[in-house]
Amino acid sequence: MTTHRAQLRAAVRDLSDRGLKCSAKWAAEQLVGLAGGPLDDEAGTSDAPMSPAEEVGSREEEDQLLLAKAYFDLNEFKRAAHALRVARGASGRFLRWYSLFLAGQKRQAEEEAEERSGGAGAPGSLLGKPRASNQHLPLLNAELTAARESEGLDGFGHYLHGIVLRELAQPALAREALLRAVSAYPCLWSAWTALSSLSGADEAPLELPDTWVASFFLAHQATEAHDSARAVSLYESLLVQWPRSLHVQSQLALARYNLRDFEEAQQRFEELLAEDPYRLDGVDTYSNILYVREEKRKLSALAHSCVSTDKYRPEACCVVGNYYSLKGAHEKAVLYFRRALKLDANFLSAWTLMGHEYVELKNTAAAVDAYRRAVEIDAKDYRAWYGLGQTYEILAMPFYALFYYRKATALRPYDSRMWCAMAGCYKQLHRRAEAIQCYHRAEKNDDREGIAFTELARLYRENGEDAQAAGYYERMVAQREAHGEAVGKELSEARVPRPQPATRRRKRARRRVQRSRDPRRSSSSAPTRRARATSTPRRPSASACSTSVAPRRTRSRRCCATSRAKERRAAAAGRRYEGRRSAGERREEAEEGGRRTLRSALTCRARMLYPAVPAPLALFAAWSPLVPVPVTGTRLFLELRSSSVSVCYRLQPVPG
């Protein structure tokens, strides 16, 4: 039975011959990382032989394949495809199709770069415009479909067909093709990763082939689904058989980082770089850890090392960008993140980090564009959704922010930061019940910052539930004292309650009673309140101002009496005015107020549902015509005027 080591050796050769460099590197890393001694496959495995079933038809075609591979290695993809235009073997046909696909992708990237440079200059300015596309996709789909139906495809052909179908936005057919690819050739790691990107949480479970590579796929899928605890468990079990695998070690460090165990993740990355000092895969994540822990010296050393190794790798540019961001030079950080995107327009980390920098620079429009590009590349990236929520929260648009925070919370339901952010939006919308629920979810999911305790105490206190508020204040104080942090303002709020209006009134009444009982004020020589108000004021002395001024207490009481009299006269005038107004006028005024309230509410809803549609059409689309919307005493109907294409409001009284 074929061993793992023999399979990997054959896979490295086959993948390298076909230009699948990433898969070849993965197979070579697992070959070196395998524990000593042969490991036979489990009983009942369905692994197919690793070498292709067909051989090159003739010596002339073999020579053409070598020439095309030389062109391919020099990134002359169209020349490689032209050299293999009459190829009949599986290897030659695959290299021709793959060269055409890469030529189309290269041209697509060039067109997008040209449009960006001719526009606003900021990456992401293509939003709202038709995207450039790969012009060779229809031809490739037709040829691959015909080859599959006529003479069949090998694992490499099924993989390329799945990639083409994915680019053509046919995910169901793409999943089927990729499943056939991993079943026919299990060591094709690129097919596994593409299959993981097309497998959502709402999809049916995949029928995976019975092969040892499936365990790597399950661990990778757990990482992509942000199930980091399960990913750590799976990768630690893989370390038993693959103790020297750099891939397993780096993915384990990444899972620790996603669990916010920064100390353990940093230690694993440092061990990985000590073993392979010129490695650049994953160093952008390592730089994020150093950024969060504010280790400026180590981040500077890492940036110098990456630049000296390969300054034109996207990972190296992101490391340098993080270094400048930590120093506060956000403009320079943006330049390096742009450089990373010029090298790889689909480098997800650069889009997200550049969005963060634009937020720091208060350029919210560019930040939104960057985050949206990140979401288009990978809809499972919770950081981009969270960044969009933060940006719209800065713009004082809580409905938009709440929508994006919900997306982030669905991807990271066990992250307290997502729940705290969503609760903050509910607070802005004065929806305290939902805010309290979100803060409770944050509390249950290890709220390390203690935000949930403080906000729950404040919300319960505002609701008048002092007992629960006191309990959360005590838990907040205990948590901060355990971490050695200063409590400050929150402690003063908890221990010295603010006087309520009724309490202030009681204090004023108590002072008046004490003043009336004061013997110095209640003596017979002191005039009574009535006598003091009617008596002639004392003549000022010569040293005083020449203007006759009444005593302060008498003047203040006279002012209060005058104010109360004015209020009584204004109230009486208002009642007389209300009596003179007809019932129709009062009803029209109430309807006008209801109209204004309804228009503002519908405008917010239409902007959230249809952000790219003009306001009148968005309002009409948000609420279908002649659908009643219950309002206090009225019912709202929407009409679409064909002449002016605008939305008008008509309020009709509700019968009964």
TrEMBL record:
Biased composition, class Basic residues, residue ranges = 503-514
For this protein, the record's Pfam families field holds: ANAPC8, TPR_11, TPR_7, TPR_8
Q: Where is the composition biased (Low complexity)?
A: 522-544
Entry keyword Cell membrane: no
This protein's record includes keyword Cell cycle? yes
Which Gene3D superfamilies would you find in this protein's record? Tetratricopeptide repeat domain (1.25.40.10)
Q: Name one GO biological process term.
A: positive regulation of mitotic metaphase/anaphase transition
Which stretches make up the Cdc23 domain? 5-253
Enumerate the residue ranges of region (Disordered).
Answer: 37-59, 484-596
Q: Where are the TPR repeats?
A: 246-279, 314-347, 348-381
An annotated GO cellular component of this protein is: anaphase-promoting complex
Alphabetized UniProt keyword annotations:
Cell cycle, Cell division, Mitosis, Repeat, TPR repeat, Ubl conjugation pathway
Comp. bias (Basic and acidic residues): 484-496, 564-595
Name-wise, this protein is Cdc23 domain-containing protein
